[in-house]
């Protein structure tokens, strides 16, 4: 970036662009709101469950895998940040940096192998796993 | 800093054309799918059904702006706008031609990655705000899928960054004068392609909205213009992905004889068509297969690709 | 980085490699004995690698770590402690259900963190070490996930440790904002150049002190300690009490000595209050405890206070004596604490964690050797002669008296008196006649031979260093003199 | 960022830090406590960035990355524990989890 | 090397006794007796070998008879330095004698865990002998602490109903006070270090350290508190009645007969030589404390209904005499103090033994359960009468000599305090009569007949009677042994006095 130009001036087009997008979005939503028809019907106010009457609580318990995935994402995404830093500086870091990064990646892959082996990456339900045990890595 | 960039004409032109093309894609996709599946597709409104888009648009505007009474209203309205806005914002860094573009940003690639991860909020919030079991499950699935593939996406394009030594998209394009990165970075390209499809939740990786299981996933309760935003947002995402693929792997505006803008549009257009083709051609995998594939294959492959690229770059630079 | 630096770093590298190997071994096949074996082998390997490193250690291997004799000595100490804890864990978790193979892995990473901490000469390394250690500890504490107590302990430790890390980081950031230095030596230069302590600096230092105080469980920041000690599995408690605290103290000592923070009189006052507070609060609260682990927790708070006395004395006494005192005290404290928690660990059954003091009733007559070991450990904690704890306390007294810290010494004496009461009370409990139904309890001896060996070794060391401390003192003296 | 004085940045981060601390102390829901913890950690990250830019060094940003990693790891384990706690205690209220006292 | 052997024999014997329980429950008793016999032989050979100033050590004053000096912790100039003079010889002899008594009177009383009991007994004796021998301050402190722990076990395991409380109180009193002493030792060493540049904990090296007056006062106080707690003198005496009462007989004998003497020994050996000026300044207060102890304890003794508790208070009273004598600042009084120490060891030890024998028979220590013992157990009662008389200072017995010398010497220095203390001579018969009257006289109210003394009891008490009488009739033999050492002490005083 050019040092003399202040960051705010530099970003001006982006800000204008962002404003324009906001305007369009607002126009679309607002237009629909103003133009759209209104009607009331009893069935419309129920959650859609494939046409049958909804049952049970909305706050269902969901698979722990979603949760695991969130944690893996947080961890691995953070690790990739370090790789990003290495990628741009790969030439400056030289072979020493390459070895260090390889070690880092090696540990990451080892972790992945571990996670795969303990079944943390296996999304199948218990029944699916039982039906196809051969597939297990 | 390129003084030609960021003109008012650029801003208006880019915005208008992206939205127009995105809207037109509704028609294009239906026509193309129909052709590949040996049927007609929309052909009643206007010549070749070209006015279908306009008709849909008008219909949307006049549909009821319905917010379910059981929903979390503020979030419910906010959710679809997020995907729409972030995807449009992504175009700010796309280098259309040396002279066309909104901003020349040193960390353009990171900016793109950041925006594409922001779009996950849209599905999660939509799923949560709808207060509907299908929506919630769809939203969760979408979130898990998106965040997972985001990791691989980031890693897959780092090979490109290594070879060009920069995050600046314009410099990346310039670095491909000798050879398009799709050649040395073929693995990276494949991973990125898969990741991008998963990221934008397009068929065949549209598990979050798989209608057989989840009705329509996170947008089950959406209708009218808010549904339209999800819809259009998806097409904008396709265009954005194609543009990025063109930029990163196919040399962006570079090309002989024709003007840069044409080259760029051509490459992007091919990308878009390819996306539609994939949708028409491939079956949908099971969700656990999708996730396992990502974590067990794509991620290690991406990491290895990175190591190999690093070695090659270092070796060739002496 | 050349070969020499590699040699110097070898102990740390060996630990890392072992940890990764362990992980892969678990991935291939879950075998509790194999995993423990690998972990033990890795620790021994690191210990062996300290030998070559010792000869090369004058150089600053990488900018972040200063692996001098001081660091290597404590790394060795931490590793030995880790080895002992690993042995205790082996017996403790052998009988418990669940997948216990990851435990040695976490133990190794925690050890790695502690070692980095001991060697760090830069805030970044310190932060990394601290966090590797803490994060491993969270999982170690909460390892038996199917029991409520460990979970509670783990989440408490996590939240409070997180807060303390945040304090520490904020303090570092403020110092950095003020000085532009993250290196300990750079900070020293800065302190040299700008004598007065301004507000930002002061708040930075206080925040760092608070953060480290949390980890050391010094008095106003000690609230997590009893709960965490009680909730954790006994060997893990031993680990927290020794490796975690020891590594942090080693770092604190290096930080103070290299940065020359002694120059700031207000800090000394603050630390004196913290020390006094820790001694008194720790001992007074310990009087009220009915649970051995809680009691030992409060007593460890007091012990950290004693250690701090030696640190504070550094303001006016020769630097080698400070390091010597702290090092000897730490060695004694390590042996004693691991021994004490080792006994608790041996007494714990998969059904019930040994906690309440009554479980000890009549132990002298049921399992005399175990009771004897525990008595020895308690006497050492109380600072009775012929144990290493006495020499440690003697060192603290010597440095305190040399530094003329009369009020602190008074609190040490009062604290020791109080301490004696509750230590002796446990011994009384052990020597009471137990009711017959407890007598008939079966004592499966074969399953804990490893713990037995470890406890025997610790007792021997305790008495050896108590009666013939000369060798250890010589070694410690040499590292104390070699530190810049 | 030279346009903004470092003191302002530090004050902002200090403010965030205190807000986070208040959150940790005052909130009773475990998830909220963890979130407040994140706020505290991120506040320190901000302080590092500000300090780094004041001295024109990259160290601050590197430390920021480290802080982020720490925050990620902490929150990962924290949420894992929270899940187990919910499984066992059927609540995330910090007071009802607090069984050990004395 | 015999000096180290004196300690080692007891320690090794202790372990042997502990282990020997494995083959036979009776073995520890015999092991203990054998150990003590061996110890007595060793001591005898040592003491007869170099008698009274005939073989002075090179470089030491004439009083020192033998020494062992080995380096131990060179970092701090700590050595394994033992030396003996007349004073320590006498006290070691007392220790061995009373140790055998304790072993003997525990013969049938201790039925459970005899191995561990005799281990503790012998370990405690080893510590005590170490205290009497050590002339390295660190080593002294070490032995000082080492003798406490076994005694703690003796009380807390084999003691009577209230043993836990008593044991803990005992440990805390002695430990905290000894920490003060440790601090004083360290400061003294540091002063010496900063002056001479070398660490040394050696007694002889520290004898001539010049100290600022107020520092000397504080340091002296540190030592003094440790020793007066052990002695005990009045404000610090409250642990003693509990500990004595709750301890098993053997423990009481050792406690009263030997452990209390370590306090007095410490005053003579350390407080006065190391801090003569400060001690001199403090003398009036110390003497007052001594007098108060004498009177207060005598009065308290009168009010007791528990025979062991009564005897315990008489100990405090007698130790008051010792304190008085030590701080009287002249040879006469100090000699008296030493004799009182020995005589009290004998009489109080014997009385505790009698009380123990009674308790074994009656299962009570209350006077209310006694009465009429003359008829029931005449031999035991006559021993009781004899030792009660010894306690109240009947001329012809050791106590009389000691108290007389103390009062004589002290009167020259501080007539008022001495006169007050002399009141004890009136009070002593009063409590003595209480014992005799309540325990022995009156009708033999009740119950089954009791067995009188067996051979073992008879022999033990007989030995004590003999020694006591000998001490009373021929005190000169004792005075001769201790004189060189005490003269040296007085010399320090006079040399320093302005």
State the share of residues found in helices of chain D, binned by percent: over 70%
How much helical structure, as a percent, in the residues of chain B? Answer: 55-70%
**Helix count from the secondary structure assignment of chain B:** 12
β content of chain D, as a range?
Answer: under 5%
Order of helices and strands of chain B: HHHHHHHHHHHH
* CATH topology label of chain D: Helix Hairpins
How big a fraction of the residues of chain B is strand? under 5%
Roughly how many Å is the radius of gyration of chain B? 20 Å
Mean pLDDT of chain D: 84
Question: What do you see in this structure?
Answer:
The complex is a heteropentamer of chains A (137), B (318), C (484), D (102) and E (498). Chain B has 318 residues and is an all-alpha fold. Chain B has helices spanning 8-36, 52-62, 73-90, 108-129, 133-156, 158-164, 169-175, 186-199, 211-214, 224-249, 260-281, 287-317. Chain B is globular and about 65 Å long. Chain D has a single domain, classed as Helix Hairpins, CATH 1.10.287. Chain D contains four helices and no strands. In chain D, helix 2 (30-55) runs antiparallel to helix 3 (59-89). Chain D has helices at residues 6-26, 30-55, 59-89, 94-97. Chain E has a two-stranded antiparallel ribbon. In chain E, 75% of the residues lie in helices and 3% in strands. In chain E, helix 3 runs parallel beside helix 14, helix 7 packs across helix 10 and helix 14 (331-362) packs antiparallel against helix 20. Chains in contact: A-B, A-C, A-D, C-D, C-E.
Task: For the structure shown, list the relevant keywords.
heteropentamer; A: 137 residues; mainly alpha; Methane Monooxygenase Hydroxylase, Chain G, domain 1; 64% helix; 0% strand; disordered N terminus; D: 102 residues; Helix Hairpins; 4 helices
Write the layout of secondary structure elements.
The complex is a heteropentamer of chains A (137), B (318), C (484), D (102) and E (498).
Chain C: H1 3-28, H2 32-56, H3 69-94, H4 102-119, H5 123-141, H6 148-179, H7 184-193, H8 199-216, H9 224-231, H10 234-259, H11 265-287, H12 292-313, H13 319-347, H14 363-366, H15 368-382, H16 388-402, H17 406-431, H18 436-439, H19 449-467, H20 470-482
Helix pairs in contact in C: 1-2, 1-4, 2-3, 2-4, 3-4, 3-10, 3-13, 3-19, 4-5, 4-10, 5-6, 5-10, 6-8, 6-9, 9-12, 10-12, 10-13, 11-12, 11-17, 12-13, 12-16, 12-17, 13-15, 13-16, 13-19, 13-20, 15-17, 15-19, 16-19
Chain D: H1 6-26, H2 30-55, H3 59-89, H4 94-97
Chain E: H1 2-20, H2 27-49, E1 66-73, E2 78-84, H3 86-105, H4 114-133, H5 137-146, H6 148-158, H7 163-196, H8 203-206, H9 213-230, H10 239-246, H11 249-274, H12 276-302, H13 307-326, H14 331-362, H15 373-376, H16 378-392, H17 398-413, H18 415-422, H19 424-440, H20 455-473, H21 475-496
Antiparallel strand pairs in E: 1-2
Helix pairs in contact in E: 1-2, 1-4, 2-3, 2-4, 3-4, 3-11, 3-14, 3-21, 4-5, 4-6, 4-11, 5-7, 6-7, 7-9, 7-10, 9-11, 9-12, 10-11, 10-13, 11-12, 11-13, 11-14, 11-21, 12-13, 12-18, 12-19, 13-14, 13-17, 13-19, 14-16, 14-17, 14-20, 14-21, 16-19, 16-20, 17-18, 17-20, 20-21
């Amino acid at each position: 970036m050019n040092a003399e130009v202040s960051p705010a001036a530099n970003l001006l087009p982006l800000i204008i662009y962002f404003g324009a997008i906001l305007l369009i979005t607002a126009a679309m939503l607002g237009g629909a709101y103003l133009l759209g028809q209104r009607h009331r019907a009893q069935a419309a106010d129920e959650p859609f469950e494939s046409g049958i009457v909804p049952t049970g609580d909305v706050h269902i318990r969901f698979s722990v895998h979603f949760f695991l995935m969130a944690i893996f994402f947080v961890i691995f995404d953070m690790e990739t940040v370090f790789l990003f830093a290495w990628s741009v500086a790969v030439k400056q870091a030289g072979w020493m940096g390459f070895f260090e990064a390889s070690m880092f990646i090696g540990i990451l892959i080892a972790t992945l192998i571990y996670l795969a082996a303990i079944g943390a990456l296996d999304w199948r339900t218990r029944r699916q796993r039982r039906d196809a045990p051969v597939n297990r890595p | 800093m390129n003084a030609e960039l960021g003109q008012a004409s650029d801003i208006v032109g880019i915005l208008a054309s992206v939205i127009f093309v995105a809207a037109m894609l509704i028609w294009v996709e239906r026509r193309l799918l129909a052709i590949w599946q040996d049927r007609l597709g929309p052909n009643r409104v206007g010549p070749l059904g070209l006015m279908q888009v306009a008709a849909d648009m008008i219909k949307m505007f006049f549909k009821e702006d319905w917010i379910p009474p059981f929903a979390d209203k503020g979030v419910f309205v906010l959710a679809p706008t997020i995907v729409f806005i972030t995807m449009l914002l992504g175009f700010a860094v796309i280098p259309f031609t040396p002279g066309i573009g909104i901003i020349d940003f040193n960390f353009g690639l990171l900016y793109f990655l950041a925006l594409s991860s922001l779009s996950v909020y849209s599905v999660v919030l939509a799923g949560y705000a709808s207060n509907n079991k299908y929506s919630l499950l769809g939203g969760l699935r979408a979130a898990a899928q998106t965040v997972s593939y985001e990791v691989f996406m980031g890693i897959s394009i780092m090979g490109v960054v290594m070879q060009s030594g920069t995050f600046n998209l314009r410099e990346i394009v310039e670095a491909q004068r000798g050879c398009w990165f799709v050649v040395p970075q073929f693995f990276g390209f494949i991973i990125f392609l898969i990741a991008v499809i998963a990221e934008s939740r397009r068929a065949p990786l549209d598990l979050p909205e798989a209608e057989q299981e989840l009705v329509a996933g996170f947008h089950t309760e959406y209708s009218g213009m808010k549904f339209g935003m999800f819809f259009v947002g998806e097409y904008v995402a396709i265009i954005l992905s194609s543009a990025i693929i063109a930029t990163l792997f196919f040399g962006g505006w570079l090309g002989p004889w024709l003007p840069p803008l044409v080259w760029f549009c051509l490459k992007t257009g091919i990308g878009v068509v390819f996306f539609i083709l994939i949708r028409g051609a491939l079956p949908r995998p099971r969700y656990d297969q999708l996730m396992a594939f990502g974590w067990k294959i794509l991620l290690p492959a991406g990491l290895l690709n990175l190591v190999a690229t690093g070695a090659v770059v270092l070796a060739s630079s002496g | 980085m050349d070969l020499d630096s590699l040699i110097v770093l070898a102990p740390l590298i060996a630990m890392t490699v072992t940890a990764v190997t362990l992980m892969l071994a678990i991935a291939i096949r879950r075998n509790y004995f194999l995993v423990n074996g690998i972990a033990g082998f890795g620790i021994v390997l690191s210990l062996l690698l300290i030998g070559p490193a010792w000869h090369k250690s004058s150089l600053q291997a990488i900018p972040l770590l200063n692996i001098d004799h001081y660091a290597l000595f404590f790394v060795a100490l931490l590793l030995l402690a880790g080895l002992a804890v690993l042995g205790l864990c082996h017996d403790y978790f052998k009988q418990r259900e669940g997948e216990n193979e990851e435990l040695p892995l976490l133990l190794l990473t925690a050890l790695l963190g502690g070692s980095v901490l001991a060697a760090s000469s830069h805030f970044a390394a310190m932060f990394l070490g601290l966090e590797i250690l803490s994060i491993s500890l969270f999982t170690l504490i909460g390892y038996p996930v199917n029991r409520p107590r460990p979970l509670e302990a783990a989440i408490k430790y996590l939240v409070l440790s997180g807060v303390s890390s945040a304090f520490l980081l904020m303090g570092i950031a403020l110092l950095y904002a003020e000085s532009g230095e993250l290196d300990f030596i750079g900070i020293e230069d800065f302190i040299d150049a700008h004598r007065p302590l301004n507000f930002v600096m002061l708040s930075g230092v206080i925040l760092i002190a608070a953060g480290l105080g949390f980890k050391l469980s010094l008095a106003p920041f000690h609230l997590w300690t009893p709960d965490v000690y009680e909730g954790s599995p006994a060997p893990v408690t031993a680990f927290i009490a020794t490796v975690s605290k020891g590594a942090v103290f080693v770092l604190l000592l290096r930080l103070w000595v290299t940065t020359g923070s002694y120059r700031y009189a207000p800090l000394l006052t603050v630390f004196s209050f913290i020390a006094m507070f820790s001694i008194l609060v720790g001992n007074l609260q310990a009087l009220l405890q009915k649970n051995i682990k809680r009691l030992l927790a409060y007593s460890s708070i007091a012990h950290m206070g004693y250690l701090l006395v030696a640190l504070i004395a550094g303001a006016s006494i020769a630097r080698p004596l400070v390091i010597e005192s702290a090092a000897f005290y730490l060695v004694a404290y390590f042996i004693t604490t691991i021994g004490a928690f080792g006994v608790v660990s041996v007494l714990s059954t998969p059904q019930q964690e040994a906690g309440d003091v009554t479980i000890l009733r009549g132990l002298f007559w049921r399992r005399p050797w175990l009771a004897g070991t525990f008595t020895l450990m308690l006497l050492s904690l109380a600072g009775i002669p012929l144990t290493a704890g006495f020499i440690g306390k003697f060192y603290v007294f010597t440095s305190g008296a040399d530094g003329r810290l009369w009020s602190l010494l008074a609190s040490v004496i009062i604290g020791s008196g109080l301490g004696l009461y509750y230590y002796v009370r446990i011994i009384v409990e052990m020597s009471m006649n137990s009711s017959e139904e407890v007598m008939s309890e079966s004592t499966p001896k074969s399953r804990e031979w490893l713990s037995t060996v470890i406890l025997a070794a610790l007792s021997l060391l305790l008495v050896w260093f108590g009666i013939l401390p000369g060798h250890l003192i010589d070694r410690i003296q040499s590292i104390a003199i070699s530190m810049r | 960022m030279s346009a903004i004085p470092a003191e302002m940045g530090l004050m902002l981060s200090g403010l965030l830090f205190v807000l986070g601390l208040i959150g940790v102390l005052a909130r009773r829901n475990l998830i909220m406590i963890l979130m407040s913890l994140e706020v505290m950690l991120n506040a320190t990250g901000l302080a590092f960035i500000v300090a780094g830019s004041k001295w024109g060094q990259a160290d601050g940003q590197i430390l920021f990355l480290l802080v982020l990693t720490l925050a990620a790891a902490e929150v990962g384990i924290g949420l894992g524990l929270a899940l187990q706690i919910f499984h066992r205690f059927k609540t995330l209220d910090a007071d009802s989890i607090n069984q050990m006292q004395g | 090397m015999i000096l180290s052997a004196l300690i080692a024999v007891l320690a090794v014997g202790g372990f042997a006794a502990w282990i020997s329980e494995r083959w036979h429950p009776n073995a520890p008793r015999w092991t203990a007796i054998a150990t003590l016999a061996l110890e007595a032989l060793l001591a005898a050979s040592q003491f007869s070998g170099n008698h009274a100033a005939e073989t002075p050590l090179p470089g030491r004053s004439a009083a020192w008879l033998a020494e062992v000096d080995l380096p131990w912790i060179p970092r701090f100039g700590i050595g394994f330095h033992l030396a003996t003079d007349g004073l320590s010889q006498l006290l070691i002899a007392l220790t061995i004698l009373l140790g055998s008594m304790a072993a003997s009177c525990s013969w049938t009383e201790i039925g459970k865990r005899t191995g561990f009991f005799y281990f503790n007994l012998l370990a405690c004796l080893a510590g005590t002998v170490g205290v009497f021998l050590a002339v390295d301050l660190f080593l002294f402190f070490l032995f000082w602490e080492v003798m406490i722990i076994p005694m703690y076990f003796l009380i807390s395991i084999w003691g009577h109903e209230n043993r836990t409380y008593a044991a803990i109180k005992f440990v805390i009193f002695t430990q905290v006070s000894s920490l003060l002493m440790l601090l004083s030792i360290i400061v003294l060493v540091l002063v010496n270090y900063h002056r001479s540049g070398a660490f040394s904990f050696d007694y002889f090296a520290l004898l001539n350290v010049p100290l600022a007056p107020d520092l000397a006062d504080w340091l002296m106080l540190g030592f003094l508190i440790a020793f007066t707690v052990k002695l005990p003198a009045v404000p610090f005496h409250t642990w003693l009645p509990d500990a004595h009462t709750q301890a098993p007989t053997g423990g009481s004998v050792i406690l009263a007969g030997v452990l209390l003497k370590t306090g007095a020994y410490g005053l003579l050996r350390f407080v006065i030589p190391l801090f003569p000026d400060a001690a001199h300044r403090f003398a009036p207060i110390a003497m007052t404390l001594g007098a108060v102890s004498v009177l207060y304890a005598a009065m308290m003794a009168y009010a007791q209904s528990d025979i062991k508790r009564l005897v315990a208070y008489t100990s405090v009273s007698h130790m008051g005499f010792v304190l008085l004598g030590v701080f009287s600042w002249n040879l006469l009084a100090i000699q008296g103090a030493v004799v009182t120490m020995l005589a009290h060891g004998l009489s109080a030890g014997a009385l505790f033994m009698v009380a123990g024998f009674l308790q074994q028979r009656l299962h009570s220590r209350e006077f209310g359960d006694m009465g009429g013992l003359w008829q029931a157990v005449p031999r035991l009662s006559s021993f009781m009468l004899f030792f009660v008389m010894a306690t109240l200072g009947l001329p012809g017995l050791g106590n009389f000599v000691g108290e007389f010398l103390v009062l004589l010497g002290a009167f020259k220095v501080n007539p008022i305090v001495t006169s007050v203390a002399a009141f004890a001579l009136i009070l002593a018969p009063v409590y003595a009569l209480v014992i005799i009257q309540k325990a022995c006289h009156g009708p033999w109210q009740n119950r089954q007949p009791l067995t009188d003394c067996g051979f073992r009891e008879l022999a033990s008490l007989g030995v004590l009677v003999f020694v006591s009488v000998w001490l009373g009739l021929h005190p000169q033999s004792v005075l001769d042994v201790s004189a060189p050492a005490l003269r040296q002490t007085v010399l320090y005083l006079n040399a320093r006095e302005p």
